[in-house]
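Input set for joint prediction.
Command: fold jointly, output tokens.
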Amino acid sequence: MEWQQLEYFHTVARVEHFTRAAELLSVSQSALSRSISKLEEELGVKLFERKGRGVVLNRYGKEFYAKTSRSLQELAQAKQEMIDLLDPERGTVSLAFLKSLGASFVPNLVSAFLGSCPRVHFQLFQNATSVMLDQLEAGDIDFCLSTVTETRASIEWQPLWTEDIFAFVPVGHELGNRRQVSLQELADSRVIALKQGYGTRTVMDRLYDQAGITPKIMFEGEEVVTLMGFVRAKLGITLLPDIKGVDMEGIVRLPVDEPECRRTIGLAWNKNSYLSPVANRFRQFLTEYSGGLTLAE
DNA sequence: ACGTGCCGGACGCAGACATT
DNA sequence: AATGTCTGCGTCCGGCACGT
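tokens >
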């Protein structure tokens, strides 16, 4: 049984006329007649009563029509969803990103993209970098916007920009009045860190390793706001990029001069997965958008 | 008798598949 | 890769049934 046969059958059933149905379907009347005959033969039952100059569904035809209607609707809907998904003006982009980019960068990025493609739908996720890369490998998302750390065989990274990482210490800390510090000078301070798996945590671990220091990790968290709360409560220091929208009361931000503390933010995608036209368009847009930001800074 | 509509045979074309 | 064969689906056209 073919999808086309069902489409022919439903058209004839609706208009109750072979010739008019054939016109609607852009086939000859005889071709339509044969197609319906073949369907009836396959089902082993006649579906139409030949009545005068037209045809009407018999009780078997009515039954078959009712049972196949939902399937046809679902197929038509699935077809339309595929068309929408692939339409660069209307598709869906699924993007996972770092929580630290959720305060302003990603909202502004999405807003700017929707300015040129208002009908595009976004699916947004926030997770640790390793989780997002797992999602990419599984084909659950199109892109991951994160700290460039892990390299995996199936993942392609496009670095977008680099940003400084600062030491955040509580007001009253012994180095709180310094204009800049080295990581070595912070070696004795207890550390409030992001959990393992977060890209920025990986960067932090590498920096401490580079400085030959084993960090005294006092607390591991998932939210920047929580980490800052612990710092404010004088429970330790943390290393993070300068994140907009975080309450800095009771906290001092210190540039770190040794070792060079920076992280690279990049866009990752699965090079073995199909990227829809709208996803490709978004990637191109993001490249230009982040390039403009870098120039502006 | 004529017009209209369905059916079915003949034939052509294109794609799938097997063979060389 | 080229060629031959098979198969499915299309059109064309004549036959038949039925309504006016």
